[in-house]
Amino acid sequence: MVNVAGHVVRWGVAQAPFPHERESGDRYVVQPCADGLLLAAVDGTGHGTEAAIAATMAAATLRSFAHESPIALVLRCHDELKGTRGAVMTVVFLHLSNRTLTWLGVGNVEAVVCHAIGGKMTTVDRALLRAGVIGYQLPVLRSEMLPLNLHDTVILATDGVKPGFEETLDLTGDPQSIADDILARYGGGVDDALVLVARYLGRDATESPATA
User: Fold this and answer.
1) Which of 9, 44, 67, 74 would disulfide-bridge 51, Cβ 3.0–4.6 Å?
2) DSSP three-state, residue 51
3) 211 within some domain
């Protein structure tokens, strides 16, 4: 759980390396700063040690400059990752003071925001992902802003997670159990897999599965 200026976000992560690899090439970021909370999932190109090096460099850069805009963060990572295998990523910044969300994706790291009432999903927003590899070739960068509502659940998933996971979600659970469930049911074993789940609980909130 993260508390930023009285705003509470509960989060969980589940991950697994590509079969027979010692180390995953996926990394995640949950980094609070004065203006809100940065979330990100990073997938180093390929898998194994070289992918992990690229993803670790990107994650470190994101943490160090978490207060900057998603576009500025991607540009910084692009400069840092030149000469590496490169990576794809989606970054999400939760502006907690005005309850908005800004996100930007380069490559195939899925990102959705699930809106729910009483644990039942009502609508889903999905990030528009643009083709490219950070450190090698960037697309035109355009971030998007959305409202952030009480009990919204943000989910980031790398491409080792099969698509469509949001269609069967049970949002009554806590973020860690949701991340574990997605990985167990949709982790295909075809690549490194990582799922990051974060839920906005409002000011000084506590979470009840019956009302989340």
Assistant:
1) 44
2) helix
3) no
Q: Residue 131: inside a domain, yes or no? A: yes
Give the C-alpha separation, 2 to 207, whole Å.
13
Q: Do 158 and 14 meet the contact criterion of CB atoms below 8 Å apart?
A: no
Domain with 189, as residue range(s), is 2-203
Q: What is the pLDDT of residue 46?
A: 86
Alpha-helical runs (H) found in 65-95: 70-80
- Of 89-93, 103-107, 115-119, 179-183, the one with minimum mean pLDDT is 115-119
E-strand stretches of the chain: 2-4, 7-16, 26-33, 36-44, 87-95, 100-106, 110-117, 120-126, 129-130, 144-147, 153-157, 193-203
Alpha-carbon torsion (41, 145, 120, 163), positive or negative: negative
**Does the reported pTM lie above 0.85?**
yes
Residue-wise pLDDT for 95-120, tens only, equals 998 999 999 999 999 999 998 776 66
Residue in this structure with the two tokens 């998603």, named with its chain if needed:
70
Structure tokens at 160: 């080792």
Q: How many domains does the chain have?
A: 1
